[in-house]
Amino acid sequence: MQTSDNAQPQAVGSPRAVRLNDVAPDFTARTTQGEKRLSDYRGRWLVLFSHPADFTPVCTSEFIALARQADGFAALGCDLLALSVDSLYSHLAWLKDIHQRFGVKVPFPIIEDPSMAIGHAFGMVDAGSSDSATVRATFVIDPDGIVRAISWYPMNIGRSVDELLRLVTALQVSDRDQASTPAGWSPGDPLLEPAATTLDDAIADGDGEAPWYYRERGA
């Protein structure tokens, strides 16, 4: 499929802000690696993240950090996809400058969203907003296209790449083992068994040292 130089992203809109367990709104848009459709990522995990503007300090630090950890996401079967209202040519100039000045080649695509169609579809930008200056949102989308985690940061605070890796890992382990992850969980730590939801189940769990509502499972 070909797009003209002034083509705008096309998104399947959502009547409200995207919430956990929603199907991620599909879209087609130009990126720094050609035209991409969100549904093309089905079958893999995806971190879709927005940044307020190219050539800004916090965003530059995030892109360098994400690029350096790209192999870690790939090892989890997870792709990275960035989004900004800036134009494709601005994205390309910024990535070229990052490569020249920092020696880092950004391996993931950046979407151009000048009309904010994708930002509006995901609820990143309020319908009445004239710009996306406050947007720094992250969506973790599972292989079925379901939004499994959402985080929002202000313009002046950078995201933790290590936490994003931990989050994707925790979601995958929780799905695989049908268990929960406790506070501060890291790979290799014990998991938490689902709590009993009926009195009979609570009684059946016995009177051991661990309470029926907090039972660890070995890693």
Automatic annotation (TrEMBL):
GO terms for molecular function: thioredoxin peroxidase activity. GO terms for biological process: cell redox homeostasis; cellular response to stress; hydrogen peroxide catabolic process; response to oxidative stress. Keywords: Oxidoreductase. PROSITE patterns: THIOREDOXIN_2. The active site is at C59 (cysteine sulfenic acid (-soh) intermediate). Residues 18-173 form the Thioredoxin domain. Gene3D superfamilies: Glutaredoxin (3.40.30.10). It comes from the Bacteria. GO terms for cellular component: cytosol. Thiol-specific peroxidase that catalyzes the reduction of hydrogen peroxide and organic hydroperoxides to water and alcohols, respectively. Plays a role in cell protection against oxidative stress by detoxifying peroxides. Belongs to the peroxiredoxin family. AhpC/Prx1 subfamily. This is Thioredoxin peroxidase. The lineage of its organism: Bacteria, Pseudomonadati, Pseudomonadota, Alphaproteobacteria, Caulobacterales.
